[in-house]
Amino acid sequence: MKKIIVAMTGASGQIYGVRLLELLRDIADVQTHLIVSDWAKKTLELESDKSIDYALSLADCVYDINNQAATLSSGSFKRDGMVVVPCSIKTLSAIANSYTENLIVRAADVTLKERKRLILAVRESPLHPGHLRLMTLAGEAGAVIAPPVPAFYNHPETLMDIIDHTVCRYLDLLELDAPNDKRWRGLSVGDATVAAGGRPQVCQE
Ligand SMILES: Cc1cc2nc3c(=O)[nH]c(=O)nc-3n(C[C@H](O)[C@H](O)[C@H](O)COP(=O)(O)O)c2cc1C
């Protein structure tokens, strides 16, 4: 059983967190542990048609952000990874500086010290140098900085196509298999690469 911590903070893009929880629910042998900040709850209400109750219902376990005594606060809680999605600049700043004022930041800090995967879906634009420095700091501590930036090479037709593409990349980073993921398959059938002997070879997926 893989234990994945999901944290939602007050940046725009709450739908990414909700969608990640939906996909994780449908993957066998995954247990989700959810923490939601107060501003995530407010932002979800402001920008989405999903309710906070729906988001909470998707997780196996839900924690109060102010409960620093929760199991997630300790390295003895064996986690396989954590995703902060969306990640506000405020929470990025706290994580980058180990300012563990709430359970989200504490759980993230513990995830880093235990050398487990921490993905930060930082959402802000444009970025000033202070934001960039915070991302560098967090990256140096081991976090993966993965802003929810859309790709278009897979020809998305709907908003959900765009959201799913990004969320499936987060699953990749957690080494979990994404259901129905549309991957880049090269330029065309017969796309060739050069094999070790210098002879072109067709790669089948
Ligand atoms: C509708 C709305 C959208 C917001 N979007 C962002 C955003 O994209 N990035 C960001 O860093 N903060 C954003 N904020 C501000 C954060 O919610 C605010 O800084 C909050 O204190 C973050 O706290 P938290 O990290 O504990 O959730 C937004 C706030 C609202 C109400």
Structure summarized in a few sentences:
With 205 residues, the protein is of the alpha/beta class. It is built from seven helices and eight strands, in the order βαβααββααβαβαββ. It has helices at residues 14-25, 38-47, 52-57, 89-96, 103-113, 129-140, 159-173; strands at 2-8, 30-36, 61-63, 81-87, 117-122, 144-145, 192-194, 200-202.
Number of strands: 8
The hetero compounds bound to this protein are: flavin mononucleotide
Q: Please name the fourth-level CATH homologous superfamily.
A: Flavin prenyltransferase-like
Largest sheet: 6 strands, parallel
If you had to describe this structure to a student in words, what would you say it looks like?
This protein is α/β, with parallel strands linked by helices and 205 residues long. The chain has one domain (2-202): Rossmann fold (3-Layer(aba) Sandwich). The protein has 7 helices and 8 strands; from the N terminus they run E-H-E-H-H-E-E-H-H-E-H-E-H-E-E. Strands 3-2-1-4-5-6 form a 6-stranded parallel β-sheet, sandwiched between helices. It has a two-stranded antiparallel sheet with strand order 7-8. Strand 7 (192-194) and strand 8 form a beta hairpin. The two termini are 28 Å apart. Flavin mononucleotide binds next to helix 2 and helix 4. The site of flavin mononucleotide has 17 residues, from helix 2 and helix 4.
Topology summary:
Blueprint: E1 2-8, H1 14-25, E2 30-36, H2 38-47, H3 52-57, E3 61-63, E4 81-87, H4 89-96, H5 103-113, E5 117-122, H6 129-140, E6 144-145, H7 159-173, E7 192-194, E8 200-202
Helix pairs in contact: 1-7, 4-6
The structure holds flavin mononucleotide.
